Amino acid sequence: MNVETAKTNKPRKNAFVMFIHKMGSPPWFYNFTGKFIPWFWAIFIVLTVWGLYLGLVKAPADYLQGESFRILYIHVPAAWMSLLIYISMAIMAFIALVWRIRIVEILAMTSAPIGAAFTIVTLAAGSLWGRPTWGTYWVWDARLTSELVLLFIYLGIIGLYNAIDEPRKAARAACLLALVGAVNLPIIHYSVKWWNTLHQGSSISLMGGSSIDTSMLWPLLIMAVATKFYYGANLLTRARVKLLEQDIRKAWVREVLKEKNG
Amino acid sequence: MSHTPFIIGAYSIGAIVLLWCAFAPLLRKKSITRDIRRLVQVEERSRDTNT
């Protein structure tokens, strides 16, 4: 690397490090993330309306499942989110335990209720899809049972976090539980391959493409993207509220509220 | 068997759970803001009585 390149790279690296440092500052995080939330909600609403219109109105009925397949436009994106949120929570829990960054702890802990909500939707919608398709609301199948265990892990993390009075100690304990609970993720994903289950295997994979017709696939993908924006907006809202709650006696909280109220 | 009640049920549960999950932090924020205002009032009152 010559001197010129080194000179041009240095400010860029500093800008990134500065950004990370700024994100660690509660008032800066509060103000910066507040700008994105309305946009995330707006994109979520537009994509959801579009996805539901295509999925519930435009897509043809499935030749085997009939109309009940339309439940999959909420069941599948919710199931993907229940896993994705856990992965992101486990990564943040690891960062929080190693580097002890308070905002990352808060982000990890505020992910848990959103993940639990998506898991409840997955189980309820799946159960309502199972009745007309399989003839039963519930079976102790490996995929269903491991998804139920995921819900219990989410509830355990929420419970442990709320059970300890000191928020940073509570976050550390709950982050540790989140990391241990990550062992359930490969079990959920591979359950349909490892065991002979009633639950069908994946119809879509990142590498192998899709066996679903395009008219049915697009609404599913749109709904999958919409739920990511829901997670983003909800996570940032919850993290900002948690920051206000923890820093209730600090000057920046009063300044922020004073600015907001004029 | 009509599938409509199952479809409506699934989407209704999804909407209720996700709407609650979205509105719960806003309700919490409202109560925290109220607490902060009360705290500021108490502090101002105690400052006034001290002076």
Annotate the secondary structure layout.
The complex is a heterodimer of chains A (262) and B (51).
Chain A: H1 3-23, H2 26-34, H3 37-58, H4 72-99, H5 102-134, H6 142-163, H7 167-181, H8 184-194, E1 204-205, E2 209-210, H9 214-246, H10 251-261
Helix pairs in contact in A: 2-9, 3-9, 4-5, 4-7, 4-9, 5-6, 5-7, 5-9, 6-7, 6-8
Chain B: H1 4-50
Overview of the molecule:
The complex is a heterodimer of chains A (262) and B (51). With 262 residues, chain A is mainly α. Chain A has a domain at 70-200 and 212-255. Chain A is 78% helix and 2% strand. Chain A has helices at 3-23, 26-34, 37-58, 72-99, 102-134, 142-163, 167-181, 184-194, 214-246, 251-261, and strands at 204-205, 209-210. In chain A, strands 1-2 form a two-stranded antiparallel sheet. In chain A, α6 (142-163) runs antiparallel to α8. With 51 residues, chain B is mainly α. Chain B has a domain at 24-51. At the A-B interface, α4, α5, α9 and α10 of A face α1 of B.
In brief, what are we looking at here?
The complex is a heterodimer of chains A (262) and B (51). In chain A, 78% of the residues lie in helices and 2% in strands. Chain A is mostly helical.
**What do the pLDDT scores of chain B average to?**
92
Order of helices and strands of chain A: HHHHHHHHEEHH
Order of neighbouring strands in the sheet with most strands of chain A: 1-2
Q: Got a strand count of chain B?
A: 0
Strand content of chain B: under 5%
